[in-house]
Amino acid sequence: MRGATQAKWAACAVVVVLTATACGGGGGGGDGSGVVGSSWGDPQNPLEPANTNEVQGGKVLDMIFRGLKRYDPKTGEAKDMVAESIDTEDSQNFTVKIKDGWKFSDGESVTAKSFVDAWNYGAHLKNNQKNAYFFGYIEGYDKVHPEKGDATADTLSGLKVKDERTFTVKLTQKFSTWPDTLGYPAFAPLPKAFFDKHDAWLSKPVGNGPYTVKSYQKGSKMELRKWDGYQGDDKAENGGVDLKVYTDNNTAYTDLMAGNLDLVDDVPASQLKNAKSDLGDRYINTPAGIIQTLAFPFYGDKWTKPGVEKVRQGLSRAINREQITETIFQKTRTPAKDWTSPVLGKDGGYSDDACGDWCEYDAAEAKKLVEEGGGIPGGTLKISYNADTGSHKEWVDAVCNSINKALGNDRSCVGNPVGTFADFRSQASQQKLDGAWRAGWQMDYPLIQNFLEPNYFTDASSNDGKFSDKGFDKLINEANGETDTAKAVTKFQDAEKILAQKMPAIPLWYQNGSAGYSDRVSDVALNQFSVPVYEKIKVN
Amino acid sequence: MGRYVIRRLLQMIPVFIGATLLIFLMVNVMGDPVAGLCGDRKCDPATAAQLKKEFGLDKPVWQQYATYMGNVFTGDFGTAFNGQKVTELMSTAFPVTIRLTLVAVVFEIVIGITLGVLTGLRRGRPVDTLVLILTLVVISVPTFVTGLLLQLLLGVQWSVIKPSVSSEATVDELIVPGLVLASVSLAYVTRLTRTSIAENRRADYVRTAVAKGLPRRRVITRHLLRNSLIPVITFIGTDVGALMGGAIVTERIFNIHGVGFQLYQGILRQSTQTVVGFVTVLVLVFLVANLIVDLLYAVLDPRIRYA
Amino acid sequence: MPEPHEPAEGAIAGTGAGGAMDLAASEATTLSPDGTGAAGPGGGPGTPARSLWSDAWRDLRRNPVFIISGLIILFLVFISLWPSAIASGDPLDCDLANAQKGSSPGHPFGYNGQGCDVYTRTVYGARASVTVGVCATLGVAVLGSVLGGLAGFFGGAWDAILSRITDIFFAIPVVLGGLVLLSVVTSNTVWPVIGFMVLLGWPQISRIARGSVITAKQNDYVQAARALGASNPRMLLRHIAPNAVAPVIVVATIALGTYIALEATLSYLGVGLKPPTVSWGIDISAASQYIRNAPHMLLWPAGALAITVLAFIMLGDAVRDALDPKLR
């Protein structure tokens, strides 16, 4: 297994080299002015940087903004972008110095104030920014964004502008890797126009990235064009990108087939089987920092009885991950072996044996375990999912069929579609689901802490199942206090072992980003967040 | 006539209020829209509370409705959760759907009535049987199946059309979607015309006209058609409202950014403002279409006089 | 036959709009182009009701369309009640290893995307579709007839209020209403879908029933019964209802087919019936995604659905022809 993986990496490296030489040779017919037509979904929230928490809005922000740092599309490493330096002596007080010469596309210079104003805006309660919690580590956050009641301050006391190109940040606690979180769109700088003419800005956003918005027809289409005044070294290699909204990604794929569209970055599960024959090597399938699990409720009495963890372990063994990822997902998912993601790498905390046997399919063992645990509480396992997006029905039905077959009872497991994502989320976050539900986690930053703490720590923000284990909490706290990265990772992995024993959520598979593109374009890639790296795309 | 119209307009008021209240209550049943705004994680409680306050979701439903209707009368249809003005969405969506509906209605009139007259005059002949069976087949196959099949065959296999409609949604792009949207109504128009023609053919006035020695063509167009088309026209008239609101499936298949698309999106996002706003306009279209149809009825059928 | 009542209301009763559900109503209008929406019974003065029904039955027995559709429907009812009589498999027994496979011995229709046997699922799917169609039609017919009948019989303020309420429900686009109402449903039985269809479908029948009750009310024998001092309930049940029910039956039969098709559309939009219920709608919408790779998955449930809808519409056609004296 390990050998195979290495071989794959080697092959990738060769491909990269070949492409690079091909590009270096300048053999392509394109003059860099062609426009890429790409599929899009209507952003869920207004296109403000600190208010965008999903991929569709993120795509646009990734094109029109550059923050202090940027995650390398290939390695995920946080590299300085607008930042010249971010220094600290005590891991709590940081001095940020920004590069000279950066401008917004409306001509305004990017200054220290552009960042501080943007962050103050993003953090303040009255602006309803859904990513406000990203600023939670900065001193004074509890004043501008209290848990209850109105804000008592206008700005974050931890942010101070020193001069045109320097500002300081004071955190509430030591956080040595804090600069690595700054690649997030929420931390982007904002021009004055954003504050002065907010509505006009929203209808035609202005940023400092490689693209500018040429036109934006809300709910339907956005035309982005290469910005010649862009200061970064990752200039757009195409003339622009036209984003077109689709409600049904099947239609987007059909359009790609018909040559009506150049890039579909979310190939629907039902078309995956065709993708290879339709597209050949114009189909990409790359790992992304996303894991799918089945979460269980720990608020009722059904799943809290002693010994019932055996039922969960049994159910886990009843799911034929290999077959489902192969048949339903055409290998765009990889059977899960732990509760994190392979993109972390071994050093980052990924482990291919944390779940061990519990994640291996064995129908006989599964049946035995479920019986030992007293059978499925209530007789039937209901798996809730949202039916409106994401091809969830296919795999939930497949998981249920796998469980039913293993346990020899057609009624052991049944899918429970919830009409809309909004309703599904509201039922999950208000503890109204009484069976299992699909839980997806897309990493915020490539750290093992980000996979474990928010999901399984007592009362953590995304711990919808209300799982609680003192031993787990203790290990997480110890790991967070550890300054040595390797030691911290080991502690986190110790905590993960408790997850294997208690099985609060059954790991299903790691999700890849999959995309297909037309023969008009080349050099298409997805980053770790499964967003296409638009500026690198070449139009032939 | 004038008094009648005024009375009908007055009757519209309770229907309008009732229908909008009904849809308002229905959308409210859908639950907390804020929970879906934060992706797979939980919204932070302070922001969620602030959002609810801003959209007025913390108030009782009747109060939300009263505020909403008050705003609607001043032309303010509110803002969707993604910050887009509902009126702005309407101004892009309605023209597209109106074009689509027009294409569909033209199909209904041209194909439906032609086939109906043809079969009505040849009742019992092979042509009649064939068309009758065809209409039954069209009615029995769900629209989404017809739509997907046409999209696959014409759009992908034979590359006759583009499988989806661009955001400009020009009339030529809307021909196939319009046909799909019209298909079921088309079948009904055919059947309706056929029955109506067959019935009126034996009416006294047609016999009189034939007896007078009028040419066949003139009898058909002037006498037979004029009277037979009354139920057909009333049907098509009221169908306009249904087509506009019922295009959800067609617009989804062909990715047309019209009313059905915005409504579908609004429902998925639980955006009360979008759904209620669009439905309010659709209810108005429905009521006005009904009134026009009734007036048209009087114009076409001299036996009916409105007091 | 000048109509003393409000012609406008009559016109609405005849035309109506609001999606697939009431298309059938529009067609039934031609029963009487005088705008009342009422059919035969009142048409010829002095025609006794009994002879209409026995005439109709005699007609139907000789109508091949009626016989064919009747046989199809009997067969459907049979397999809805005893699906295991013609399908030995289990519709929920699925093996992913067989996903999308074509037909093989013992599995004539092949397998679907989950590796379930398409033949077995098509047979078992009849139950849900027939249940939805029949129950929704019954509910709509009962609720619509009662409300429409009362409005037509009592007239005046009752009529005004009930007619406005009818208009309100008529004005809500059907598919839209389904999306909104059914998206919050968690039950996996057929009842929410049926309930929704009744809730938004009754105005169609209500208008027809109201129109025909108004016509029937004006018949001589009803006036005579009133003069003789018959009570309201007695007049409604004994004299008016039997004469006003024909158009309701016609429209209801045709509507039954459209309800079955509507269930499939709701499934396509993700708000129809839910597993483990086996239904054609669920299978059609799942298969429509794989239309390119495995058309057989779509063909069989969609074919079964189309034949069922066809049978009910043909039955409605035949019944209408039989009940409409003008077409004799």
TrEMBL record, chain A:
Gene3D superfamilies: Dipeptide-binding Protein, Domain 1, Dipeptide-binding Protein, Domain 3, Periplasmic binding protein-like II. Residues 34-53 are annotated as: Disordered. Keywords: Signal. It comes from the Bacteria. Residues 81-461 form the Solute-binding protein family domain. GO terms for molecular function: peptide transmembrane transporter activity. GO terms for biological process: peptide transport. Residues 1-22 form the signal peptide. This is ABC transporter substrate-binding protein. It comes from Streptomyces typhae.
Automatic annotation (TrEMBL), chain B:
One of its GO terms (cellular component) is plasma membrane. Residues 94-297 form the ABC transmembrane type-1 domain. It is found in: Cell membrane. The chain crosses the membrane at residues 12-31, 96-118, 130-154, 174-192, 224-249, 275-300. Keywords: Cell membrane, Membrane, Transmembrane, Transmembrane helix, Transport. InterPro entries: BPD_transp_1_N, MetI-like, MetI-like_sf. Its main location: membrane. The keyword Nucleus does not apply. The keyword Transmembrane helix applies. Belongs to the binding-protein-dependent transport system permease family. This is ABC transporter permease. The lineage of its organism: Bacteria, Bacillati, Actinomycetota, Actinomycetes, Kitasatosporales.
From TrEMBL, chain C:
The keyword Cell membrane applies. It is found in: Cell membrane. The keyword Cell inner membrane does not apply. Gene3D superfamilies: MetI-like. One of its GO terms (cellular component) is plasma membrane. Its main location: membrane. PANTHER family: ABC TRANSPORTER PERMEASE PROTEIN, OLIGOPEPTIDE TRANSPORT SYSTEM PERMEASE PROTEIN APPC. Belongs to the binding-protein-dependent transport system permease family. This is ABC transporter permease subunit. It comes from Streptomyces typhae.
